[in-house]
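Weekly modeling sync, notes
Attendees: AB, CL, MP (scribe)

Item 1: holo prediction request
CL wants a bound-state model with uridine-diphosphate-N-acetylglucosamine before deciding which constructs to order. AB pointed out that an apo prediction alone won't tell us much about the pocket. Agreed to run with the ligand included and paste results into these notes for async review.

Input as submitted:
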Amino acid sequence: MDKFVVNGGKRLRGRITVSGAKNAAVAILPAVLLAESPCIIENVPDISDVHGILKALSALGAKVTPLSRTTFEIDPTEVKSFVVNKEMAQGMRASSYFLGALLGRMRRAKVAPPGGCAIGLRPIDQHIKGFEALGAKVSIESGMVVAKAEKLGGGTVYLDMVSVGATVNIMIAAARARGMTVIENAAREPHIVDLANFLNSMGADIMGAGTNVIKIRGVEHLKGTTYSIIPDQIEAGTYMVAAAATRGDVIISNVIPKHLESITAKLKEAGARIEEGDEFVRVTMDKRPVKCNVKTMPHPGFPTDMQPQFATLLALADGTSIVTESVWESRFRYVEQLTFMGADIKVDGKSAIITGVKNLKAAPVKADDLRAGAAMIIAGLVAEGETEISDIEYIDRGYEQVVEKLTAVGADIKRVSDEDFGYSLKAN
Ligand code: UD1
């Protein structure tokens, strides 16, 4: 197992280019299965979650041809299998999107239950409710989720809570159903709009993506298309916070500033200066952050996937801040790691009470999940001394070339394999 070793205390300066959005890619790539001719997908992030989806597509019988590191031609025409087993799903949360995609294409799907980051219960009852509204029967057989539909028609689904995954899955399945599907209380995240744009570019008829009512008029045929994935809002936000926390000056390019509004607003409240261009944001900070309160909400609220990173910034603020998590029930596991570094944070139910300290101290810490791992990197970049971060396979799931990108703006961060430490973690 590799680790990151970060020598903190350096101000980040320069330019970071953001990659394609993970959460859009993991929805769009399975949805390629709906096409009746090859698709070319550009700006695909080079991260392990995406490699997992591409491998699963190949195992299903799709022909996946890399045209560059971030562009793939995917020909789904020969896909005959409708089974995504445990090995193919590889613990990915997004494996559930194969349910919608295979149901839409073949009218049946058998998929290992989704895994992903351990940030709370991750049920799929709303996905299932959506499939059932379209006329599918869903059951659990030998630990696999099985969905079958003799006829896949339209239907109206009211989501009990705003769910990104259910909105994605229902949109994918409904794109080739017969009839009109309406998703009420739909998620409005930028990647929902990106998925709708992708499906529409294949010939789908989807209206209202980006609002809380999405209407999908099913079509019989979808054709291949060439499509470029939007920039990653959360990767951009992570580097924005890293710039502010290190009191740096960083231009973060290849972004859609509108997608970053909630993050920008909170960073300004915490004392950062932010300049916005058409495709970049510049974050400058030259003083200690100011306390502020944050509550995570579905888009356009403050994203839960930025909560650990922002809390790390507030751990350095002048004053006491309250961070409230309203999307996931247990997303404060990283707090323990931050306290090893000298942070003063108390968790009380859904809130963390953060009393800012002047600096953090280097310590051996671990990435509890993907965004917790991003928080550890930010803490390591700030702390004086050498911070060792273990369990970084979580970080590799969602951050492309994180070492290269941070090194280019002056960070001292290395990837080190455990052999380089002179012992093997595997023996433990
Ligand atoms: C997606 C993102 C994840 C992000 C989350 C919220 C992907 C691949 N992952 O996850 O990074 O943190 O959105 O922005 O896009 N819920 C149910 N039943 C369901 C579905 C969800 O109870 O059937 C609950 C969940 O437990 C959670 C809340 O709804 O409390 C939101 O979950 P959801 O938006 O579905 O998250 P994901 O799609 O898994």
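Recorded for review: Residues 422-428 have pLDDT under 50 and may be disordered.
Action items: CL to compare against the apo run; MP to circulate these notes.
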